[in-house]
Write a structure and sequence with these properties.
The protein has a 4-stranded parallel sheet. It is an alpha/beta fold and 218 residues long. β5 (177-185), α8 and β6 form a beta-alpha-beta unit. Helix content is 34%, strand content 16%. It binds zinc ion (ZN) (2 copies).
């Protein structure tokens, strides 16, 4: 509703016409191979594990994202999440569906937002993205996860890991293969905690899919 009343301005560059102009859309940095086979980090050549994920226990089999989380992607995600520009969910899903083949899974799940955030925003961006992708990929989207407590903490890897450890549980028995959807993959801790909860509930293989992925330097 709000979307219709607001003047259409690109949330990245401010130019008029649409919420994401063609130029800014084209310039979002698509994540292209070679990538780490496990965590999806861009690498110099294809590897099974990279410096970012080596030695970490990750409950997901692979993590993939459509674009790098650069300044433009950050602005887009911010507007999408905080200003409730829901149409951007469709844009984000389209970018994901263009970049990634449909995962070979029985269902999509999404990272649940904590209650406070959900009330504040009135929507969960990860859930909206999952619903859009479910339609594009023709895979059912199921509310397989819930929060046991607490908010999300992003920033340092250690802070995120502490905040999400044990933060999710499955709402019931999970299908055999699941892809868990989130808006941004930051350190992988949230994806790993979600995947871990799904595997405890019976999933044998969990893939993580995000719209954007933080990129480490060096
Ligand atoms: Zn623009
Ligand atoms: Zn990796």
């Amino acid at each position: 509703m709000l979307d219709l009343l607001l003047p259409q301005r690109c949330v990245v560059c401010g130019s008029g016409g649409s919420q994401l102009c063609g130029g800014c859309r084209d310039e979002l940095p698509r994540l292209e191979p070679p990538l780490c086979g496990r965590c999806g980090a861009p690498t110099a050549w294809p590897v099974e594990r990279c410096r970012e994920c080596a030695g970490r226990r990750l409950a997901f089999a692979t993590a993939r994202a459509a674009v790098g989380y650069d300044e433009a992607a950050r602005r887009l995600v911010h507007a999408w999440k905080e200003r409730g520009l829901r149409r951007l969910s469709a844009e984000a899903a389209q970018l994901v569906a263009e970049r990634l083949p449909p995962p070979e899974v029985d269902a999509l799940a999404f990272v649940p937002s904590d209650r406070g955030r959900r009330l504040e925003r009135g929507h969960n961006p990860a859930e909206r993205l999952a619903l859009e992708l479910a339609a594009a990929w023709e895979i059912p989207c199921l509310p397989l996860l819930e929060r046991t407590r607490g908010g999300r903490q992003r920033g340092s890897s250690a802070a995120e890991r502490r905040a999400v450890r044990g933060a999710f549980r499955a709402t019931g028995r999970a299908p055999r293969r699941v892809a868990v959807i989130d808006d941004v993959y930051t350190t992988g801790a949230t994806a790993a905690a979600s995947a871990s909860a799904l595997r405890k509930a019976g999933a044998r293989r969990v893939e993580a899919v995000a719209f954007a992925r933080a990129l480490r330097r060096g």
